[in-house]
Amino acid sequence: xxxKKQQEGEMENHNLPQNVAEQSKSVDESRRRFTKSGLAVSxxxxxxxxxSALGNGFVCKSPSGFLSGNVSxxxxxxxxxxxxxxxxxxxxxxxxxxxxPGTCHSQCxxxxxxxxxxxxxxxxxxxxxxxxxxxxxxxxxxxLGGGGDPYQLGAHIVAALLNARSGRTPVLTEAQVIxxxxxxxxxxxxxxxxxxxxxxxxxxxxxxxxxxx
Length: 213
What we know:
Layout: H1 4-15, H2 20-36, H3 44-48, E1 58-59, H4 63-68, E2 79-80, H5 85-90, E3 103-104, E4 114-115, H6 138-142, H7 145-148, H8 153-165, H9 174-187, E5 190-193, E6 196-198, H10 200-208
Antiparallel strand pairs: 1-2, 3-4, 5-6
Helix pairs in contact: 2-10, 8-9, 8-10
């Protein structure tokens, strides 16, 4: 039997608009790229995305650590308790300062329902590949969905930033999240380490490993 908390979590995930076919395809493409590059060390991706027995969170890695395949590092493994874009979209009162969600006037799951709030381009560089987010607030980017944000990179970047600000992702600081996006904006990809390129689907795939809730 599902608890009320589980049911609410499912509703939050379904409230985030997305093109299921496109997202599934992007994840498959991401997995193929990781495997082709020899990065999908047996069991590594599964372990990184599995729940830690050490606390209420998922074992998580920094971008470079994610590639290393070392899941038995010295010391206590770090865990992430990041929240998904859907959660932040439905919890405007929980946004950490200085980031502001704005005001919802109607249809809060739509871009047009929100005014005010922190402008996305005031935090991230949007003069290149990120120009599609240039006119939106951070909350509006969360609600763009698959049509305006095909890989939902913007939505996951916003969630990652709010998670970092809230102290939910010890492996990612606000500066690192901003750098991931800004490098993608400039180059069309992010390099977690030399000669390894993460495109939109790859970045989202990684960020999801820090968002178990």
